């Protein structure tokens, strides 16, 4: 199987300059560092409409919008979709200083305390937890893009304040001395509103909706597929790492979510996905390629995952009737639960099936 190196789009290209404004969220498998390659591939593929059904941090959807595509972003979790609503579907709304003042200094409008009660002594200080309850008492009154921006800022602030951005640990065991870890959440929230406000720009009509990839629409010119692959060791469970952000994105379904009270962290229950197990991932990939056979498929893949590249290329060849093109680039992973595994050099591929 042959692969080629693609010339990177110049980092001064307007779409990459715009993409650089996207706020940085630490997210397992996010493609911030691959944007120049992806931009080159997307430019070469062309088309007007794009689907990003595993949108995650939202940065690739945002790049596609910056390149002029009308993008539909989806994810099976709610918080990634909220980020895409704030930065992609939103074409021009921003939170004003007055909106922010009310959320930060307006007190707790209705006395709600779900977060303070449920997460007392975990993750954040009592002051931070009170802030999250009070902030939501105001955000609940916002609608549309302003609401998505405010929630996106809460999510980003909470992720930045949590060591390594994951909610599998409760203490400051991984305290790396970053000031963010010790800044009150309310202050971080204000900075995060600025970050999202600055990312807003007008482009083609974009949509974002929560749902499984199998229910995604099939009429896009270009479909960017970045599913979770099964690492040989470890797992690829997003909810296990980011459940606090998921709860925060809709105030734990208005305080009704099924919190697992018997667990140390009071996390949310596992949400099954066919991509979460080595038993089901192969048939899920085959079904997904069939689903999008009429679009140009651009697939991201890392070399330390299961199934291997050859198997993926074979599946795409079977569906499309021609061998896909493989673009290769070196990529250093920063994620993983074991530090040695996290630093292992992996090769990142982009597979283009027309
Ligand atoms: C590798 S990440 C995507 C990263 C993204 N491209 C970025 O740059 O941040 C995979 C995403 O797939 C989502 N996911 C997992 N199973 C899914 C399913 N069955 N349908 C839709 N999304 C799913 C996860 O929540 C996660 O956000």
Q: What is the count of distinct domains?
A: 2
State Rg: 20 Å
Oligomer: single chain
Enumerate how many helices there are, as a single number: 14
CATH second-level architecture of the largest domain: 3-Layer(aba) Sandwich
For the record, the CATH class of the largest domain is Alpha Beta
Global outline: globular
> Taking strands numbered 1, 2, ... along the chain, how are they ordered across the largest sheet?
1-7-8-6-5-2-3-4
Largest sheet: 8 strands, mixed
Fill in the CATH topology of the largest domain. Answer: Rossmann fold
Task: Write up this protein.
There is one protein chain. The chain is α/β, with parallel strands linked by helices and 354 residues long. It folds into 2 domains: 1-91 and 209-228 and 273-354, Rossmann fold; 95-200 and 237-268, no CATH class. 40% of the residues lie in helices and 12% in strands. It contains 14 helices and 8 strands. It has helices spanning 14-19, 35-45, 59-66, 78-89, 97-105, 114-118, 126-139, 144-161, 185-199, 238-249, 251-255, 281-291, 309-320, 339-343; strands spanning 3-4, 49-52, 70-75, 207-210, 222-225, 296-302, 325-332, 345-353. The chain has an 8-stranded mixed sheet with strand order 1-7-8-6-5-2-3-4, with helices on both faces. Helix 3 links the parallel strand 2 and strand 3. Helix 8 (144-161) packs across helix 10 (238-249). Residues 333-337 have low confidence and may be disordered. Residues 27, 29-31, 53-54, 56-57, 59-60, 75-77, 80, 212-213, 226-228, 238, 273, 275 line the site of S-adenosylmethionine (SAM).
């Amino acid at each position: 199987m042959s692969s080629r190196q693609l010339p990177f789009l110049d980092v001064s290209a307007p779409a990459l300059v715009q993409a650089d404004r996207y706020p940085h969220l630490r997210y397992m498998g996010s493609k911030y560092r691959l944007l120049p390659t992806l931009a080159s591939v997307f430019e070469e593929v062309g088309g007007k409409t794009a689907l990003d059904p595993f949108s995650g941090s939202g940065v690739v959807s945002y790049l596609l919008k910056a390149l002029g595509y009308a993008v539909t972003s989806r994810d099976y979790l709610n918080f990634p979709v909220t980020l895409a609503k704030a930065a992609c579907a939103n074409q021009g709304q921003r939170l004003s200083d007055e909106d922010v003042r009310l959320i930060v200094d307006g007190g707790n409008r209705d006395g709600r305390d779900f977060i303070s009660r449920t997460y007392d002594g975990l993750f954040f200080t009592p002051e931070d937890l009170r802030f999250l309850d009070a902030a939501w008492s105001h955000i609940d009154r916002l609608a549309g893009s302003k609401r998505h921006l405010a929630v996106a800022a809460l999510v980003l602030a909470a992720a930045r304040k949590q060591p390594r951005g994951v909610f599998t640990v409760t203490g400051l065991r991984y305290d790396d001395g970053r000031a963010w870890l010790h800044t009150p959440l309310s202050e971080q929230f204000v900075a995060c509103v600025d970050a999202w406000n600055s990312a807003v720009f007008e482009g083609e009509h974009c949509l974002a909706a929560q749902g499984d990839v199998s229910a995604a629409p099939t009429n896009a010119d270009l479909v960017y597929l970045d599913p979770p692959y099964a690492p040989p060791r470890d797992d690829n469970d997003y909810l296990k790492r980011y459940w606090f952000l998921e709860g925060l994105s809709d105030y734990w379904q208005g305080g009704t979510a099924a919190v697992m009270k018997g667990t140390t962290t009071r996390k949310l229950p596992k949400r099954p996905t066919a991509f979460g197990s080595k038993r089901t991932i192969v048939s899920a990939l085959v079904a997904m390629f069939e689903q999008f056979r009429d679009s140009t498929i651009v697939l991201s893949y890392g070399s330390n995952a299961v199934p291997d590249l050859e198997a993926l290329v074979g599946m795409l060849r079977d569906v499309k009737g021609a061998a896909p093109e493989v673009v290769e680039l070196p990529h250093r992973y920063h994620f993983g639960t074991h530090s040695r595994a996290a630093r292992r050099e992996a090769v990142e591929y982009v597979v283009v099936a027309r």
